[in-house]
From TrEMBL:
It comes from Marchantia polymorpha (Common liverwort). CDD domains: D-hex-6-P-epi_like. It catalyses: alpha-D-glucose 6-phosphate = beta-D-glucose 6-phosphate. This is glucose-6-phosphate 1-epimerase. It is an enzyme of class 5 (isomerase). It comes from the Eukaryota. Belongs to the glucose-6-phosphate 1-epimerase family.
């Protein structure tokens, strides 16, 4: 396991490169605390990054995994998706030793762990406190596992004297071969807020989500596991999440792509955003408390992971299964309701918030 700190030639800011012995790697920019690359053991890029991405503040980089904090979208008085994605983060001293930061990219340090790990932190500046007057510590731990899986753990600590609340998303841009050949499983039968219809609340009817037009939806209270199946690439992304109850699905399609200056006209064909998020209900953190959210991404061959997700296993966390479609949706509705009821009974308070 190796962790390097190098200067990013495009942005001019430092970035951290994580590598594991089988060949997979990831890159995390100090600008935005943003993962901008995640490659499998064959060196294939798994995240989408626009060829027109702009690396200059205050613009956030178009692609990778931007962090939306303390506000998702336009749900508040701050700039779209909050300010964390266009601030300069710091490397935190963590259990995994980090090399000294140098400018020529020559620092290399072996990490004694089965994961390559980096931990970054963002704290507000005086200017930030003027627009969002809450003192916080936002920590991001990125870990690349021995099988190439990418885990992001986010912690928000209230170091202020008053409670504050925030909305949040890990705005993951997945790279796909052809958006029209992609399906998303795990969000069937759920309610969603449709951003293309003024946030109207609707219910997903289909067995899986497929794409032939612009989409911008916030699926509410989703299972902990979502699968994105890229038929063309014969690859399935599995996203597991905790503490982030919602999932945003976004593709700008043709017209909106042309309107974005930092996005190629045809690039919508090669990306899909599936975002682990807390949007519908803001997270409230009292003084001294810390909230934790987590997402784990893995990419597996579709021959290993094929057909529809068994919703029982979606809820309980195993990976592959086949069921006839009608059976799937009946069990899906039943088990999702049962799961929702059990969750409500068991969690009178947010289990992802701890007192320090
Ligand atoms: O252009 P950005 O500010 O990065 O936002 C890109 C997209 O992010 C999310 O997916 C929102 O739901 C979309 O409404 C928004 O267009």
């Amino acid at each position: 396991m190796m962790v390097d700190v190098v200067k990013d030639a495009t942005s001019g800011f430092d970035k951290i490169v994580l590598r594991e012995p089988q060949g997979s790697s990831a890159q995390v920019q100090l600008f935005g605390g943003q993962v901008t690359s995640w490659k499998n053991e064959r060196g294939e890029e798994l995240l989408f990054l626009s060829s027109k991405a702009i690396y200059k503040p205050p613009k956030a980089v178009r692609g990778g995994i931007p962090i939306c904090f303390p506000q998702f979208g336009g749900l508040g008085s701050l700039e779209q998706h909050g300010f964390a994605r266009n601030r300069l983060w710091q490397v935190v001293e963590s259990s995994a030793p980090l090399p000294t930061i140098v400018n020529d990219g020559s620092a290399v340090t072996p990490i004694v762990s089965n994961k390559a790990i980096v931990e970054l932190m963002l704290t507000p500046t005086e200017e930030d406190m003027k627009i969002w007057p809450h003192n916080f510590e936002l920590r991001l731990r990125v870990a690349l596992g021995s099988s190439g899986d990418l885990t992001m753990t986010v912690k928000v600590k209230n170091v202020d004297t008053r409670p504050f609340n925030f909305t949040f998303a890990l705005h993951t841009y997945l790279s796909v071969a052809d958006i029209t050949e992609v399906r998303v499983e795990g969000l069937e039968t759920l309610d969603y807020l449709d951003n293309l219809k003024d946030g109207e609340r609707l219910t997903e009817q289909g067995d899986a989500i497929t794409f032939d037009n612009e989409i911008d939806r916030i699926y509410l209270g989703t299972p902990t596991k979502i699968a994105v199946i890229d038929h063309e690439k014969k690859r399935t992304f599995v996203l597991r999440k905790d503490g982030l109850p919602d999932a945003v699905v976004w593709n700008p399609w043709e017209r909106k792509s042309k309107a974005m200056t930092d996005f190629g006209d045809d690039e919508y064909k090669f990306m899909l955003c599936v975002e682990a998020a807390a949007v519908e209900k803001a997270i409230v953190v009292k003084p001294g408390e810390e909230w934790t959210g987590r997402q784990e991404l893995s990419a597996v061959s579709s021959s290993y992971f094929s057909g529809q997700l068994d919703p029982r296993k979606v809820v309980h966390g195993s990976s592959k299964a086949h069921l006839p479609q009608n059976q799937t949706s009946i069990i899906s509705r039943f088990s999702l309701r049962l799961f929702a009821a059990m969750t409500l009974m068991c969690s009178s308070r947010n289990p992802n918030i701890k007192k320090s």
